[in-house]
Amino acid sequence: xxxxxxxxxxxxxxxxxxxxxxxxxxxxxxxxxxxxxxxxxxxxxxxxxxxxxxxxxxxxxxxxxxxxxxxxxxxxxxxxxxxxxxxxxxxxxxxxxxxxxxxxxxxxxxxxxxxxxxxxxxxxxxxxxxxxxxxxxxxxxxxxxxxxxxxxxxxxxxxxxxxxxxxxxxxxxxxxxxxxxxxxxxxxxxxxxxxxxxxxxxxxxxxxxxxxxxxxxxxxxxxxxxxxxxxxxxxxxxxxxxxxxxxxxxxxxxxxxxxxxxxxxxxxxxxxxxxxxxxxxxxxxxxxxxxxxxxxxxxxxxxxxxxxxxxxxxxxxxxxxxxxxxxxxxxxxxxxxxxxxxxxxxxxxxxxxxxxxxxxxxxxxxxxxxxxxxxxxxxxxxxxxxxxxxxxxxxxxxxxxxxxxxxxxxxxxxxxxxxxxxxxxxxxxxxxxxxxxx
Length: 438
Description:
Layout: E1 27-39, E2 44-50, E3 53-59, H1 61-67, E4 75-83, E5 93-103, H2 121-126, H3 128-131, H4 135-157, E6 161-162, E7 168-169, E8 181-184, E9 187-191, H5 196-206, E10 208-216, E11 229-238, H6 242-262, H7 277-282, E12 287-289, H8 290-299, H9 312-321, E13 325-329, E14 352-357, E15 360-367, H10 372-381, H11 390-394, E16 403-409, H12 410-417
Parallel strand pairs: 3-5, 6-10, 12-13
Antiparallel strand pairs: 1-2, 1-4, 2-3, 4-5, 7-9, 8-9, 10-11, 11-16, 13-14, 14-15, 15-16
């Protein structure tokens, strides 16, 4: 039967993963694509896969003849009866009554979506929609969806208000130079690289806010951890300091790990080194000062002068000592943006932190400067024009509360959770210095 003959009685009743919970003899209809077909004479076995898993079906007579003509990866629906199976790979099987063909796949595919024949990442990304039929690949994005829900639920439960800030802006926010610019109705516009200034303004009235959104960075860097369009999870909260924000982030990361372990994701947590999962969840993330990092590196034979940034090579060495997640806190003020608050005891240091996983920076945050005069002074010290930040500074004249926040690079977190080394693996359609399609 073809698609034009389908009606409501011939549409899907179940997903593959649901069939094992039904009684033998149940009538079902399941839709997906043909992953495999084996013809052994008067009997055929067709493996149908959908986003939830695979179903083995048994074909006889006319259905067997028909199945021989349908290319693998074609989109079909089978109707039939659940029966016991002798297969070691399936708990039940379906005796097919009818096959409905929605759409036939071409005989020659650009990649093998079963993963049996390996393709390089570029070829897979060029055919991403087909690539996702590989269950190992689709699992990444099922986990991604689950983690985003965990994050959103966590902040909502903790009285954060979800906001949506502009992605088209009229000036270079944060004074950054790595912005994409374009013509905006005869004016110059930019794609936002973060919601930083907006979320600070919003705590004036909304108190605690969060945003999950894409941002853009025109950084001419082609590495395994950089992309031009990335997903960021940003938070900002009034009346909290940077230690409070670190507590929130640590609690969130541990909640994500615990939730994934308790779900049906079958996660591999081998990146949690030298500890059991329970010990890891119950142990605090180390908080190492920048000055302590310098001392540690000196013992490792690497000389770092105070005020120098920590390069990848230095962070990799620190990651060997402080494996798994750890915070680097109290960075030199000259290494941080103008809106970061200086340390009360030592103005050369800032109330700031980075959450690291080895060399990989996942979160950057800190206590914000809420004194407008000090903000103006910091802008001038960094060679930035106060006039360019007039709209932002106005809100600090209206009773701005002390506040703190941070931004989580969600794609990098997914690299860690999925134990992958290339950020493009965890992004559906990555954009970088060489890729703008598909």
